[in-house]
Amino acid sequence: xxxxxxxxxxxxxxxxxxxxxxxxxxxxxxxxxxxxxxxxxxxxxxxxxxxxxxxxxxxxxxxxxxxxxxxxxxxxxxxxxxxxxxxxxxxxxxxxxxxxxxxxxxxxxxxxxxxxxxxxxxxxxxxxxxxxxxxxxxxxxxxxxxxxxxxxxxxxxxxxxxxxxxxxxxxxxxxxxxxxxxxxxxxxxxxxxxxxxxxxxxxxxxxxxxxxxxxxxxxxxxxxxxxxxxxxxxxxxxxxxxxxxxxxxxxxxxxxxxxxxxxxxxxxxxxxxxxxxxxxxxxxxxxxxxxxxxxxxxxxxxxxxxxxxxxxxxxxxxxxxxxxxxxxxxxxxxxxxxxxxxxxxxxxxxxxxxxxxxxxxxxxxxxxxxxxxxxxxxxxxxxxxxxxxxxxxxxxxxxxxxxxxxxxxxxxxxxxxxxxxxxxxxxxxxxxxxxxxxxxxxxxxxxxxxxxxxxxxxxxxxxxxxxxxxxxxxxxxxxxxxxxxxxxx
Amino acid sequence: xxxxxxxxxxxxxxxxxxxxxxxxxxxxxxxxxxxxxxxxxxxxxxxxxxxxxxxxxxxxxxxxxxxxxxxxxxxxxxxxxxxxxxxxxxxxxxxxxxxxxxxxxxxxxxxxxxxxxxxxxxxxxxxxxxxxxxxxxxxxxxxxxxxxxxxxxxxxxxxxxxxxxxxxxxxxxxxxxxxxxxxxxxxxxxxxxxxxxxxxxxxxxxxxxxxxxxxxxxxxxxxxxxxxxxxxxxxxxxxxxxxxxxxxxxxxxxxxxxxxxxxxxxxxxxxxxxxxxxxxxxxxxxxxxxxxxxxxxxxxxxxxxxxxxxxxxxxxxxxxxxxxxxxxxxxxxxxxxxxxxxxxxxxxxxxxxxxxxxxxxxxxxxxxxxxxxxxxxxxxxxxxxxxxxxxxxxxxxxxxxxxxxxxxxxxxxxxxxxxxxxxxxxxxxxxxxxxxxxxxxxxxxxxxxxxxxxxxxxxxxxxxxxxxxxxxxxxxxxxxxxxxxxxxxxxxxxxxxxxxxxxxxxxxxxxxxxxxxxxxxxxxxxxxxxxxxxxxxxxxxxxxxxxxxxxxxxxxxxxxxxxxxxxxxxxxxxxxxxxxxxxxxxxxxxxxxxxxxxxxxxxxxxxxxxxxxxxxxxxxxxxxxxxxxxxxxxxxxxxxxxxxxxxxxxxxxxxxxxxxxxxxxxxxxxxxxxxxxxxxxxxxxxxxxxxxxxxxxxxxxxxxxxxxxxxxxxxxxxxxxxxxxxxxxxxxxxxxxxxxxxxxxxxxxxxxxxxxxxxxxxxxxxxxxxxxxxxxxxxxxxxxxxxxxxxxxxxxxxxxxxxxxxxxxxxxxxxxxxxxxxxxxxxxxxxxxxxxxxxxxxxxxxxxxxxxxxxxxxxxxxxxxxxxxxxxxxxxxxxxxxxxxxxxxxxxxxxxxxxxxxxxxxxxxxxxxxxxx
Lengths: 489, 917
Hints:
By secondary structure, chain A is α+β, with helices and mostly antiparallel strands. Chain A has helices at residues 2-12, 17-25, 30-35, 38-41, 47-56, 97-108, 115-125, 132-148, 157-166, 190-199, 221-231, 236-239, 257-262, 267-276, 305-316, 347-351, 366-373, 375-392, 399-409, 430-436, 439-449, 458-464; strands at 177-178, 186-187, 208-212, 234-235, 240-245, 250-255, 282-287, 294-299, 319-321, 328-334, 337-343, 362-363, 452-453.
């Protein structure tokens, strides 16, 4: 009875019958509802309804604070940070007057030519004095050729590009070789490197950086040395001998004075680094009784030999300077400057360094470039890495093919791998995915989401036995001979 | 007879089958585990029930009345005594159980949260999210819901659901029977399913738990009759027999009220059989085996992997009208021809559609029978297909009578004849040039034959290679093949915009011999050379000596070049001197062609070779593919003529060098070996100066490698001094025909250091490579330096080291083919749907723009000039004239992506400007 009464009572107060019934069903009475919080009510009816109900009952209700955290919640409009005066470095020389003239002429002729073509032409005839007529003649002919060289619509550009990159794969070597420029650094090349690029791995098997210095400092070897030693990760072990003193349960560090000097390190810095490390107890300077050398003693309150040994190991691996991830830096003279090549890569931190030229410094870690400079830079980096890997093996592949692969990898804003976890796994067609890899999973999942395959890709149409939608198959033109008309036209 | 595709399938929908649907579509219920009775007839309501289709000829299907070829087969079903979980959906089930209330079956989220998730799903749809994105979204929803401990709808406390792989669910440790699971799933509301990524219109969650099992038609699992008369059943049938047996026992026990324990055991056994019926590789349970111990191939195994239905039957299909045999070369064929053996031609046919206009002719053809008599090969007819689709085999005996019956609407299968267009293919088909259209030439003997110039695109040689040939069956296909796939259309490769079809090996040696310097040919010789081509006139003799007329090789070769061709380039024999003497080049490497006449230079790989031939490239581009085909045909024939007239041989004596030189080489090598010994000495005494960033050992290795490498080169150079251009082996190496100078120096001078993994050989015995050396020996010989040359022969230890290097090469190749094959498969799969639209943008099937213009300039790489959009050079020469053109600066060539252009090495000044801010 109580339930019915409650419903009636609520209805009287102009509360929707549905909400009323739900609340009554849940065991609420008029008085309990008045006391209940919005949260409690919203378990049964929607929040808005709950508020309305309470209002009608004369209770002032506030929307409960939303606790639900949503990933896609729009971030607060960020305060626009005062943009530092960023100059975007231009690597392309500006158009010369002559080039501009040619471009203008092309436009006047009602066509267009890419810049590379025009600048090539400018380079060739720039020194010649040619009449306008001759120039026009040349440009018209070039435009004619250019237009005849365009790709045909419906061309299966993707397959051609994939073949053009895949086919030379069979001719590549498997081994890693020394990098052409720097004999000391091993770099993965050939097929394994190409696979690495296409896989969009988090980090390459042999990360490497090429660091250029700012123009003002790049000509001095000392500067390069300085930067190199700042970059190269140096462990405590590299600059000192480390011993365990079992008697006093302490670790003794004997710094190599010469190494310290050459690495621009002082004893103070050493001490600071050691003190900063976790697990070290008291760190003190001492003079060796026998040799009179300055030594650093790390005293632990520990009584376990095992822990002491562990401490020794940790100390040995302690990075006292340099950048994480970079194990070696080598200086090379190139043209007129000193360039630093490193084994290991840490793009972000190196870019922050004082003396380096951020516009010319690169890494072969594509993912890192993506994180630091964004997807466009990553795209360029894929093109560069892939084309230099192929070029290094003496294989010529048109840049356009590599661009297409790079573009599909970076098409939706981040770097995606070529393969089942990347592009192929995201295809809209069930059949195409099933035909590639992990067949059964795709089919079974398709059934529960009720997927529909519209058969517009290649693989799907091959499967059902229809002409594919590329090339001649994309054209739905049919020649139907006209029957001789009765009118006798 | 349906010709051409008149309709397209619009789409294919996927959905779950509900038990009701299964029963509705079932032709019969299957209850007995037996298949055939004693007379060999299928038992009713057995697994081979003739309601399920027929596999034996003569019988009729009881459902549709069709015979073997007409009846596609029909599904049956088994009613399961107890519900059983479908293995494919356990993960999904777990997600559902965890995300929903055990009591009321609602999603463990507040209403508004559910709505929010639903909205997000819709939003994903709107912005074009992929299925994968949606899956992730659903996962997130499920995770959020799974976190809630108390149901917000009915306040029930939730308990923990765990999955005991593969198919057992537990709730706080207690087993949940499939029946209980099913009951819970039934309670889930439709509107709660959408945010979970399930479409309730096509898939109710409880359908993931089977109460009826679909039995596939017998056509899907035909039984085979062995010679002995025994029947051998398909793996699926075996599995279904198991299911039926256990199902029966389970039902009996349950109905008889057997103890819970026994029923549960049987239930689990049923679950096992149904699980393995779907997927026999489910982890966590032993695979069901055949009597012989071989694991059964059940449903998932049939679909999965390279040999599965998808990849081997759906994505690739077997075809008729094809042939395969060994290939062999025939330099006299044109590049777009293929020699087909008579035997093959008699089997391969082309359908002729009989119409009024060709009726008489076709009748005449049929009258000839399958093996017509005649002068040479005359095509006959193998089959005649009547309007009703019946095939009539034409024999010598019935040819006359069949010919009479042929009428409009018949299809007559004519044998291959000369000039027919066919597809020719060699695997692996790595690029589109692996399958090209050729014209048929019927020939005696049993191999396919083609011009050697087509070897590079097919990557073929004649050491036993086989190739495939496909005969096109429709007029459209033939037209398309003729326009798009003919060999001459593929002279320029889309990979780099240069020729892939062109002269190889002897063609190049021949071209060299014909045109190098002042080589000349007398009347007889010239006639011989030109006779290979025909259709050319002997020009006026270029040289008359003592009243004898001679023709220069350049003169003769020029006959193949179009009359208005002008170009200048350097041949492959070019030494790259500091200052080029141009026309007066010592080695005749400056090729200059004026109006189709070779003025100077030697024709070699750079002119006509596949991959590098510049003349070839230009002709293909400016004169069209047909002219290029003619040029290749003629040029290669000239070259072959020349090499035959002159004679060409190479042998071991080509690597002969004087004794004095051998001594010198031995001396060089000895010095190097001694040098290494000193290095080792220095290393052992600790005097070796460490290279920056290298350990002492590494330094030693690098130094030793360097020293020995240099010694090998020196030795090679010394040997090379005595090998001049009169030497056949050198001609081949320098002209680019085959081999390299390195190969020669290894034969005549010194083989050099053998390497494994790019290092000197170091493994083998304890601290030494072979027991022939003292322990710890780091000298040259002990680490794989081969002092000998191939000609003089290797010592036993050298031979061993050499084999080690050789083995690495073999392993490398083996590993590489599989790795690069997989990479290519992935690349193709990722890019296959991209196409250039009418607005020249590159898009995928979802119409997402990948590139606004293909390759940023919209140029087709196969039409480009080695990648450049327009051949500026060509136009300039044309417009400005040769004289003015000669004064122009050289073209700028971009070496690497993003790098400075050649000739633009940074000057001091420019370097100073860089990066200054």
